[in-house]
Amino acid sequence: xxxxxxxxxLSYLTKRKKKISETxxxxxxxxxxxxxxxxxYHKYNQNYWQFLIxxxxxxxxxxxxxxxxxxxxxxKRGVGVDISSxxxxxxxxxxxxxxxxxxxxxxxxxxxxxxxxxxxxxxxxSIGYLDDCQTTFAGLHRFCNADTRIIISYTNWLWWPIxxxxxxxxxxxxxxxxxxxxxxDIIGLLHLAEFDIIKKDWLQLxxxxxxxxxxxINRYIGTLPIIRGLCxxxxxxARSLQAIKQETLSATVLVPCRNEKDNVENAIIRTPKFCDDxxxxxxxxxxxxxxFDECLRVQKExxxxxxxxxxxxxxxxxxxxxxxxxxxxxxxxMILDGDLTMPPEDLPKFYDAxxxxxxxxxxxxxxxxxxxxxxxxxxxxxxxxxxxxxxSWLLNQRFTDTLCGTKVLRKKHYQRIADGRSYFGDFDPxxxxxxxxxxxxxxLKLIEIPIRYSSRVYxxxxxxxxxxxxxxxxxxxxxxxxxxxxxx
Length: 488
Known about the structure:
Layout: H1 4-7, H2 15-27, H3 31-37, H4 39-52, E1 58-62, H5 68-72, E2 77-82, H6 85-94, E3 99-102, E4 120-124, H7 133-138, E5 149-155, H8 160-168, H9 183-192, E6 195-203, H10 213-220, E7 233-240, E8 251-257, H11 264-269, E9 278-284, H12 291-301, E10 306-311, H13 317-327, E11 332-335, H14 347-355, E12 361-365, H15 378-395, E13 407-410, H16 411-419, H17 432-441, E14 446-450, H18 467-483
């Protein structure tokens, strides 16, 4: 049964909205049958929603229909809102463990039972019904905290003639005339409503099974640049700017170091006091030049600094980073490579970008400013640029330098990456891609900060041009399989 507030929701609907509500009501009883007719499309998109949203989260779905998607997300708290009272009746009877509310998504403030904030607010193919998208988006801020993600999916308007034909042939549930929008339109309206765009994606070049052929097309052709813009479903992920506040945070500067003896003390001396509480964590990698003993000496030499020293249990920078972050106590985790080719004097920029909320995963870029002579070998420079382009495509976010060692994020976000590490596995000897892939899957806001890359003043590079180059090629293939071809 609907309560008085829900039963009176029709009183503030526009004429167009009342017509939409009546149409949806008329199809509510057969909605599941319509979904079965287009099962490939719905299942493919459902897999992507599950990729974006981990289990056990608080999710608000606007335009929930009969609740299949909300149920599939296995939520801690799942709330669905729909304009169709009949759809809500079906959803409530099928999934009594979830909350379903009848209401107009453009007037959520009138729904007294809709309270609190959510981890995710999703709008699957529902913005076509809106009379005023910008105002609707602006009304979502009250349900957002700084970590809330808004995810909108919408049908590519280039497909409309085909979809209308499918309706006439009885292959798709009929709809009223909807708003004709593309990703750029949605992004523009989100900006106007004070939302920050994190990424966008495109799915399903072929939205029917075709005896399995469409899987190959969607995975290996539909994900290619330019072609992907023709896909049926477009996704946009955003966050609320109104919910972001400047914070005073403690910081841990992690210095992985192997054969970097003469750089250890400089890491302390040259790092500015960019916040009131800075911890230094040196993780030494079984050096042959006395680096570990130097770390212990510097720890005693600077008792006014909070310095911790560890030896990594395994090998490789990735192992050192995981050890250091496990021992860190700071709210902000910062990697400063022991070769100091990234100037420690630039760390305040990274801290400020994170503490202000401008970004949630801050990546350094060595390839924008001119670098010192011999700071990077020519072939390395070319390879870095190529890999950056590849990873920008794979991750749907612009990366100009994936291999810059300086990466900064909040400890709570790192913990989420670590908790979800099983999706990618322990695959990365560098440590860079473990963080990059994890941050992408966690929908963190990426910011890149250009740095002036310096030449080494001590020691030799730990990077092998060819063996590590082959590892990077393997990393591209790995990311392609995990991020582009494993959704169904």
